[in-house]
Amino acid sequence: MIVVVGAGIAGLSAALAAAGDERLGQEGLRLEGRAALADGAKRHPQEVLLVCKDEFVESNTYHAQGGVASAIFDDDDPALHAADTMAAGHGLCDRTAVDILTDEGARRVRELIDDGWRVDRDEQGHVLRGLEAAHCRSRVVHAGGDATGKVLELDVSAMVKANPNITVLEHAFLNDVVVRDGHVAGVRLSVRDAKGGVRPRVVTAERVILATGGAGRLYPYTTNPSVATGDGLAAALRAGAQVADLEFYQFHPTAMAIGEHFLVSEAVRGEGAVLLDEHGHRFMTDIDPKAELAPRDVVARANFRTMQAQGGKPVMLDVSPMAKENPDLAEFLRHRFPTIDAYTRELGFDWSKEPIPVAPAAHYWMGGIRTDLFGRSSIPGLYAAGECARTGVQGANRLASNSLLEGMVYGYRAGLAAASDRADATWRPQDFDNSEIPGLPVCQKPMTIHTPAARDAMVRPWDRTHIENTMWRHVGVIRTGESLATAVAELGAGLAAANAEYHDGTSAAEYAQAVTGWENRNLLTVGYAAAIAAHNRCESRGAHTRQDYPTHNPTIAHSIAYVMA
Questions:
Q1: Cα separations (Å) of 343 from 264, 315, 351, 515, 527?
Q2: What is the DSSP letter of 247?
Q3: CA 390 to CA 317: how far, in whole Å?
Q4: Residue 249: CB atoms within 10 Å
Q5: Extended strands (E) in 441-520
Q6: Confidence class for position 160, pLDDT limits 50, 70, 90
Q7: Is 164 exposed, middle or buried (0-12, 13-18, 19+ CB in 10 A)?
Q8: Which SS3 state, helix, strand or coil, does residue 389 take?
Q9: What is the pLDDT of residue 462?
């Protein structure tokens, strides 16, 4: 049996591939070089246990407003999409990984549309497409207007439910990956019982795929749902897996500055919305030739610095330029962005008549478990896909609407490999080639992160607010060496306290109460690792910006892999 942990698009794709579902992969893979399975391995359908921390469809995918970027239109090409992806990645993308993403991504998108994914179409039935930041073509496919992730999750999860080889286990928390003699042996779970209590369960498996998403809940301002607490990445770190690029956390430029920091999709700026300071000045034209359609890291920093200059007041997003093409702007917004429209009106804004306040918020983690091109980690039997993985695709900054695509492509690849790999498969992520700077690898040899000893803990276990505020203050949009050193020390103490208090849930009365403690420990684990990674990168690159090192340093234009000990 293969265990897949996580039910976003990466986990769903992995489960379908591992279970031998032939609705995916009909167009095949890029079968050359590092992109090929060993000896041309064939499909070997397996029994799959799909583990979900919450309800089956609750994931980052479900909440994703943005679309899926794919070169499926006549005036586009995967090579153009690849060039945009590598440019956004600031020299830390692997060319082969990106070529796989854009080539196989177009194949997977076409297959899903053929299999019934309900994408948006015009009156003639043609698939609609949008333009988003840093793309040279309009290539972003949407579904349900600004509810792409929700529609994708529901449509693909229906495929999973219909597959007899896949069993779904809901309300099951991943405590740890079990490793014996250097090889994965299963997972240790805590499952909610019928009365809301905790039932420990160990599942034996020689193949485990982690697709647990990101860790946006590290920060007080985030577009991520409550389940995004870094559980898979933390479990992988504790198991001794290599991780990389943890310093690169993308802050989405435009989340609502009030309420629940609801994401205002990139597509809104793609349709023509502009950013204004408190005096009504459109400041992005002063910063980048692409203005509001510059890469996300550029726009997020500009918004953050503008807010600092105006005493913390949010910047304003003005959609009125859209009225030129859409005279009935209110109706257009209701149709094109129904979710955002409803939310802004719920907060008391009529955004068809007035700008809305926005601010940067934690959105997507480029770093994660270091894998090869089939999701294999450094631990035999352990695979990773989606936001918890570092595949070589995202580099230092993710191109808009590439995340769901990466989940489709590399989730499928991980599932296929897990069902096909022999016991003697290579279990070492290959060193990726640099996409931008000749002669420098994307990844160095691993370094060890020393976990603070529990006996050194001098503080009480941290609550969520303490974690979020420490990360925002010291490992936020713009950083300094001093603030990062403070973060390493403080988060290390917090992690030591959490490790000292950890229990597996057998003594907990309620599942929900126990989950809060486990999630906080996981957030401290991945936050501590991220702070160390950011402190060790003495430059500004992509989503990692340091005031004391404001420019690129080509002599360190590589990422360091880490192992926690």
A1: 10, 18, 10, 29, 31
A2: T
A3: 32
A4: 25
A5: 447-449
A6: very high
A7: exposed
A8: strand
A9: 94
- Buried b vs exposed e over 139-158: b needs ≥16 C-beta within 10 Å? bbbbbbbbbbbbbbbbbbbe
The pairing of strands 243-244 and 561-564 is antiparallel
With 0.70 as the threshold, say if the pTM is over it: yes
Spacing of C-alpha 422 from chain mean position: 29
Q: Are 376 and 539 in contact (CB under 8 A)?
A: no
Q: CA 83, 303, 360: angle at the middle one, nearest 5?
A: 80
Q: Kindly report the number of other CB atoms within 10 A of residue 371's CB atom.
A: 30
The residue from 296, 336, 398, 413 that is catalytic is 296
Among 439, 517, 447, 563, which residue's Cα sits nearest to residue 231? 517
Q: What is the DSSP string of 179-214?
A: EETTEEEEEEEEEE-TTS-EEEEEEE-SEEEE----
The C-alpha atoms of residue 65 and residue 491 are separated, in whole angstroms, by 32
Query: What are the residue ranges of helices labelled H in 115-270?
Result: 148-161, 231-239, 266-270
Contact call for residues 524 and 237 (beta carbons, < 8 A): no
Query: At CA 544, angle to CA 256 and CA 518, rounded to 5?
Result: 70
Region of 551 (left: φ > 0; alpha: ψ -120 to 50; beta: rest) is: beta
Contact 187, 209 (CB under 8 A): no
| Residue-level pLDDT at 389 | 97
Q: Is the pLDDT of residue 285 over 80?
A: yes
- Strand intervals (E) in 322-453: 356-365, 368-370, 382-384, 389-390, 447-449
pLDDT digits (tens, 9 = 90+) for 224-248: 999 999 999 999 999 999 999 999 9
Tokens of 301: 């920093």
What Cα–Cα distance (Å) separates residue 174 from each residue in 3, 16, 104, 189, 295? 11, 21, 30, 5, 34
In sequence order, which residues have a C-beta less than 8 Å from that of residue 253 and are 6 or more positions away?
275, 296, 299, 300, 302, 303, 358, 360
Across the chain, how many H-helices and E-strands are there? 14, 19
**Hey, is 159 helix, strand or coil?**
helix
Helices (H), 502-545: 511-536
At residue 345, φ and ψ (nearest 5 deg) are -70, -35
Amino acid at 155: D
180 is catalytic: no
Q: Quick one: which of 79, 52, 276, 193 has its CA closest to 505?
A: 193
Q: What is the pLDDT of residue 457?
A: 47
Nearest to 28 by CA among 17, 39, 44: 17
CA distance 28 to 44: 15
Output the pLDDT for position 121. Answer: 96
Each residue of 74-102: pLDDT tens digit? 999 999 999 999 999 988 898 899 999 99
Confidence of residue 505 (pLDDT cuts 50, 70, 90): low
